[in-house]
Design a protein that fits this description.
Radius of gyration: 59 Å
Number of helices: 33
Number of strands: 17
Strand content: 5-15%
Distance between the termini: 94 Å
Largest sheet: 7 strands, mixed
Helix content: 40-55%
Shape: elongated
């Protein structure tokens, strides 16, 4: 260290000596201006300006004003000692303070000459153009006087004299002559006296006298002026210090980092990443071109600046200042002597943009010597932007998924639960029971069920009102759900009848549960009326008796239920085909109870026919489903469960014959003409043929045939014999008419529910059964049950789908959201394809198109853009499918 400092001092002293030599050489040859010459020129101008300004006052003899002005000038100029005005006869007309003491005799004073030294300056009030003409005649009157040497000439003479002394040579004749000549600018007491002749009307009036301070003498007897002397002393003092520091820095005393060669800089500038070279104190030594361009910095402002002082931006800090405890990657690289990779930092550039960099830092140097660090910055702003978009999209998808799950739960309740009792409806009951029955039969395990019917329920409605009847049903269902819903299946099968499935229970265990249920119902008490006591009849059956389908098992339990009712009610009866009933009579055969083919109405076959109709005419299929729902609600309290089931099937299939109607007639936007009406009326016959050939059920055919006959008789005046027609057919006609009035058609707008009620009542007695009309209105319209489907959505599609289809779509979308969340492209494509197939079967083309776009986007190559587009398309698809659920949620809100 000491050697380096000593070497730096030597180099600094050498540089200072070289500098002094250069300064003296420049002064010797006159390249550096002599301050004395500049001062003489300035004094000459000052004297000339003062003389010109005083000429007018002298001519007009304004002596007080002139005296005041001259005194003011002397006070303001610290180099000017005094000023005086003397006439040509030697009278001192005006003089400032100390002028008499400072002024020498006229012989010692010198005339102020022009800058070239050729002639003295004379102040005259005669214009130049007049004076030029009079110059020949006035030449003899010009003031005599000898021009003095300038300061430059005097200085050069002294330099030559000093040089001769140093060389030891004698004086030349020319030098002797110069030395022998008298100095016209004699100085006494450090004063310099100057005078300017004043001419008035081409006559010499007097002189203007000036006394200045003599300039200070420099080194070597005036060879160097005082300004150069001070400059040399300053240069020696400051040069030694600054040159020493410079040499120490260059030699690496303060910085061990060597200067980066130009070829290395050029190589680093070719890198696509930003790069910083730091020294051991984390100061920036070099920044490549990419780093400067991206962030808008200049090289000069980064050199010797701490890398941690750059405008780093931390999202958790609102001010953007770095935390005192934060350790940057280059700090760890220098301190731990280990490379740090892929650390994310954010910087605010000169343009105000926050950029994200992936920072890699590695130490420079060998062993434990901390030479610095090499830091690279990869701009990953666009990647980070995509990541943030993905996170936002995932968050939105999770919210959508939660919303879908919530709505699916609500929809599942609406689609599978009875609105009054909360038990499973019959459709959901069959969907769950059919696979369960098949599984238990395959495994050889027992499965039992029992039917529960509230005794004298019609009397309760007639005596206490329907609101009490509803409360009775809610109380009985609460008992059943509390006892069995956790592990078993509870269904409101129709009216006051309930069905309970007991998987894994044999006949004896099922009978025990039935007895417990019967006793629990007997203990039900209502707040109003308090005196009402409830009982129930129960029929029990098990799969051991050869029930091949769910409907067979329910029919067996239902037969036992009617045996219990005929036996006095409030009892449980176990199914046994070989024994005699408790009443002592032989059990009636299936043919005596109902049509034996009634048990052979598979719901899947009905669904297949309705799906075929929906493919041809979705509006008619939806109309049929709405009519079926209305019929099931209206049959409450009028029909048994078997008759209700047949009525529901009849409502779903009453317009199935429209499958055979040509599209030109079926989808005609306007009213039909007579020939087209003939073709349309044939759909009744086609529908009856389809039903007869598919189900072979006379009761189902009779209901639909009676419905069609009432439609044909509507135009005639012959009254309709309602007594000869079944209740099911009459209810089907009322429900069909109500939904037709309130539904939109291609050629007219649907009317309101109030208008439909007025129309039904107006035609009651002629086209409809009067009592059934009021019962229908009470159970459907005034009972706040479900309303018709068909709600337009924000995307312009009528998503009036069945409840079970809406539930299936909701389940598909829920799985689709799971696939997106897991970023499983294959599962996403598969689910989208399945959803497109379901939607296409139900003529939901917007959902089909959206699912197809997901399949196209899933095949894109760029992964980042692929997922962003997939998220967007999935969101659109979920919005469309959510509308299928919102329709049912809306109808539920209207009904309550």
């Amino acid at each position: 260290m000491f050697k380096a400092v000593l070497a730096s001092l030597r180099l600094a002293f050498a540089l200072v000596c070289v500098g002094i030599g250069l300064i003296l050489g420049a002064q010797w040859f006159g390249f550096i201006p002599d301050s004395r010459i500049e001062q003489e020129i300035a004094r000459r101008k000052t004297c000339q300006n003062i003389a010109i300004s005083t000429l007018d006052d002298i001519r007009n003899q304004r002596w007080p004003i002139l005296d005041s002005m001259l005194r003011t000038i002397v006070k303001k100029d610290d180099q000017l000692l005094s000023i005086g005005i003397r006439t040509d006869v030697g009278v001192l007309r005006i003089a400032t303070d100390n002028h008499t003491r400072c002024w020498h005799s006229p012989e010692a004073a010198r005339k102020l000459t022009a800058p070239d030294g050729t002639k003295p300056i004379v102040v005259d009030d005669v214009p130049e153009w007049v004076r030029s003409g009079q110059s020949a005649s006035k030449k003899t009157n010009a003031p005599s006087g000898r021009s003095g040497l300038s300061f430059a000439e005097d200085g050069r003479a002294k330099i030559r004299s000093l040089a001769k002394k140093f060389t030891g040579s004698g004086q030349t004749d020319e030098a002797a002559a110069d030395t022998a000549s008298p100095d016209p600018a004699t100085q006494t007491n450090d004063n310099l006296c100057l005078e300017i002749p004043i001419m008035l009307k081409s006559q010499h009036w007097g002189n203007l006298e000036f006394c200045f301070r003599s300039p200070p003498t420099g080194l070597f007897g005036g060879v160097l002026d005082a300004g150069i002397t001070k400059f040399i002393l300053f240069f020696v003092a400051c040069g030694m210090g600054s040159y020493t520091l410079l040499m120490m820095r260059i030699m690496g005393v303060f910085s061990r980092t060597q200067v980066v060669p130009d070829r290395v800089r050029q190589a680093l500038d070719t890198l696509a990443e930003g790069l910083l070279v730091l020294d051991g104190s984390e100061k920036i030594v070099l920044a490549n071109e990419n780093f400067l361009t991206i962030n808008g910095f200049e090289m000069e402002e980064l050199i010797d600046r701490l890398a941690s002082d750059l405008p780093w931006f931390f999202p958790g800090n609102a001010t953007g200042d770095s935390s005192p405890k934060r350790v940057f990657p280059w700090s760890r690289a220098i301190q731990e002597r280990q490379s740090v990779t892929a650390e994310i930092l954010r910087m605010t550039g000169r343009d105000g943009v926050h950029r994200v960099f992936s920072v890699n830092a590695g130490p420079i140097g060998e062993d434990n010597k901390q030479k610095g660090a090499l830091v690279t910055f990869q701009d990953v702003t666009h990647v980070e932007k995509h990541r943030v978009e993905l996170e936002n999209m995932l968050t939105m998808l999770r919210k959508s998924k939660d919303e879908i799950q919530k709505k699916n739960q609500e929809l599942e309740i609406l689609a599978t639960r009875d609105a009054l009792t909360g038990c499973l409806n019959r459709r959901a009951f069959f969907e769950r029971m059919e696979p369960m029955l098949e599984q238990f039969r395959r495994e050889g395990r027992p499965l039992s069920c029992f039917m529960v019917d509230v005794d004298h329920f019609k009397s309760v409605n007639d005596t206490y009102g329907h609101h009490t009847g509803d409360e009775v049903l809610r109380s009985v269902s609460a008992v059943l759900r509390q006892m069995f819903e956790e592990q078993h299946i509870v269904c409101r099968y129709g009216g006051e009848e309930f069905c309970v499935m007991l998987p894994g229970f044999d006949l004896d265990q099922a009978f025990d549960e039935a007895e417990r249920t019967r006793l629990a119902i007997m203990n039900v008490r209502l707040a109003d009326p308090e005196a009402l006591r409830l009982t129930a009849s129960i029929g029990v059956s098990e799969t051991r008796f050869g029930a091949a389908e769910t409907q067979d098992l329910i029919n067996q339990a239902d037969e036992c239920l009617y045996v219990a009712k005929r036996g006095g009610r409030n009892q449980s009866v176990v199914y046994d085909p070989e024994r005699v009933s408790v009443l002592g009579e032989e059990e009636p055969q299936t043919a005596d109870i109902a049509d034996p083919d009634l048990a052979k109405l598979p719901f899947h076959a009905v669904t297949a026919l309705v799906s075929a109709l929906a493919y041809r005419d979705p509006a008619t299929a939806e109309h049929s489903r709405r009519v079926a729902d209305l019929c099931v609600k209206a049959s409450d309290g009028l029909l048994c469960q078997r008759e209700t089931y047949v009525l529901e099937i009849a409502a779903l299939l009453h317009d199935i014959g429209k499958i055979g109607v040509p599209d030109t007639v079926l989808h005609k936007p306007g009213p039909l003409d007579e020939s087209e009406w003939k073709i349309m009326r044939r759909h009744n016959t086609v529908g009856l043929d389809i039903i007869a050939g598919t189900f072979h059920c006379d009761e189902l055919e009779n209901v639909i045939r009676s419905h069609h006959s009432m439609s044909r008789d509507r135009g005639s005046n012959r009254p309709i014999d309602f007594k000869s027609m079944s209740i099911s057919a009459r209810l089907l006609k009322i429900a069909d008419t109500y939904d037709s009035i309130t539904s939109d058609r291609t050629y007219r707008k649907g009317r309101s529910s109030e208008e439909a009620v007025l129309e039904l009542r107006r035609c009651a007695g002629t086209q409809f059964d009067t009592e059934l009309v009021e019962h229908f209105l009470k159970r459907t319209v005034f009972g706040n049950d479900d309303m018709a489907l068909g709600y337009p959505t924000s995307r312009g599609i009528a998503l009036a789908v069945p409840k079970h289809l809406a539930l299936k779509i909701g389940q598909q979308i829920e799985q689709l959201a799971d696939a997106i969340d897991a970023q499983d492209i294959e599962a996403l494509q598969k689910l989208a394809a399945e959803l497109a197939e379901i939607a296409e079967e139900n003529y939901l083309m917007p959902i089909v198109d959206s699912a197809a776009r997901i399949g196209i986007v899933a095949q894109e190559s760029e992964e980042e853009m692929q997922w962003i587009n997939l998220f967007k398309e999935t969101q659109i698809l979920m919005d469309l499918c959510r509308a299928t659920q919102n329709a049912h949620l809306a109808e539920s809100s209207h009904s309550h």
